[in-house]
């Protein structure tokens, strides 16, 4: 998936393109949605030796006391700038297929291929959260979950054709192209990745993508999702790499890390968290319910490892060892403080053992 030899396990970071990063709390660090901050984080990731940086696409925040993700940058534009600012690290941008025509995206990523010297990747997202797109008049009430993936299948095939064919004519269910031309073609096909564990999502990833971001409530669930998408890809004569997201609360000692985790959790933004869950389509009563006796975890949008360098190393090794994942996308409370420490005290040990 990368321009050079691919390590056995890849480690990257999910950039804080939205204010607040990935912790929904008044008492956690609050990264700002600025290019300056994200540029510093991307350069720190490169100096640290991470393999990739990725940014999400988000068009509407969740409010609350923290105005979580009320301010966001645009992923493809920012990635083009980061491609120029960096030299080695892979740069992956997110595209919502329901907002961008395939001919536009084909041209944008052919450009990004040149800017990055072949280091770019596309995170393909099937827009699913109604409020983000209804505000623009870009939400189709008649589309089911499977309809959105059928649409994205056609969208993806057209992008691939435009990257390789001089002229594309297509009269399909969702798109019409007549002698559509998009040159130059990318010198190297951008890395394609997608997320999701629904049957339709896994089938799409297995058919089109180089990488799959997976979620599950526990390690056995991640193992099952890892095995399933790899089997689906193998059935089509393809291979696919698998990843999961992980928040790292890293301090000098386990006790200090536990204290930081508790402090970040103490200020959880219940209003923003509820709005996020409602965007997933959960009923209001369920969205408003908290994890009984463990409210601190509600502030975090991913699985979390907490500890000093030894403990964090052991927990990450357990994650990749038990699940078969090929990589981990890391989230940090304070990227500019935490990334260098992780790179010095944890990443070399992960590299040595994976």
Automatic annotation (TrEMBL):
InterPro entries listed in its UniProt record: Luciferase-like_dom, Luciferase-like_sf, SsuD_RutA_monooxygenase
Signal peptide: none
Listed EC numbers: 1.-.-.-
Keywords tagged on the record: Flavoprotein, FMN, Monooxygenase, Oxidoreductase
GO molecular function, one term: oxidoreductase activity
Record carries keyword Oxidoreductase: yes
Protein name: LLM class flavin-dependent oxidoreductase
């Amino acid at each position: 998936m990368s321009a050079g030899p691919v390590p056995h396990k890849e480690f990257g970071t999910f950039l804080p393109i939205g204010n607040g990063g990935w912790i929904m709390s008044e008492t956690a660090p609050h990264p700002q949605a600025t290019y300056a901050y994200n540029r510093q984080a991307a350069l720190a990731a490169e100096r640290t030796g991470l393999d990739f940086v990725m940014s999400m696409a988000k068009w509407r925040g969740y409010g609350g006391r923290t105005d979580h993700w009320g301010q966001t940058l645009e992923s493809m534009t920012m990635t083009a700038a980061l491609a120029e600012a960096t030299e080695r690290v892979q740069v992956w941008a997110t595209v919502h297929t329901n907002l961008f025509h395939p001919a536009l995206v084909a041209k944008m990523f052919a450009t990004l291929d040149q800017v990055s010297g072949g280091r770019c990747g596309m995170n393909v997202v099937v827009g699913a959260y109604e409020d983000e797109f209804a505000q623009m008049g870009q939400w189709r009430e008649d589309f089911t979950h499977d309809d959105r993936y059928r649409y994205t299948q056609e969208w993806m095939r057209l992008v691939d054709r435009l990257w390789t064919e001089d002229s594309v004519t297509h009269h399909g269910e969702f798109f019409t192209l007549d002698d559509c031309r998009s040159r130059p073609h990318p010198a190297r096909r951008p890395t394609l990745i997608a997320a999701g564990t629904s049957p339709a999502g896994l089938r799409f990833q297995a058919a089109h993508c180089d990488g799959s971001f997976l979620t599950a409530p526990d390690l056995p669930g991640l193992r099952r999702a890892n095995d399933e998408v790899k089997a689906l890809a193998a059935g089509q004569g393809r291979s696919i790499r698998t990843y999961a997201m992980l928040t790292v609360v890293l301090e000098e000692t386990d006790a200090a890390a536990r204290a930081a985790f508790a402090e970040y959790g103490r200020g959880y933004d219940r209003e923003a968290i509820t709005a996020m869950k409602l965007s997933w389509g959960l009923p209001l009563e369920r969205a408003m319910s908290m994890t009984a006796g463990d409210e601190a975890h509600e502030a975090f949008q991913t699985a979390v490892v907490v500890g000093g360098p030894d403990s964090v190393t052991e927990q990450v090794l357990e994650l990749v060892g038990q699940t078969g994942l090929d990589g981990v996308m890391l989230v940090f409370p304070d990227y500019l403080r935490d990334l260098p420490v992780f790179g010095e005290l944890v990443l070399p040990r992960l590299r040595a053992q994976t």
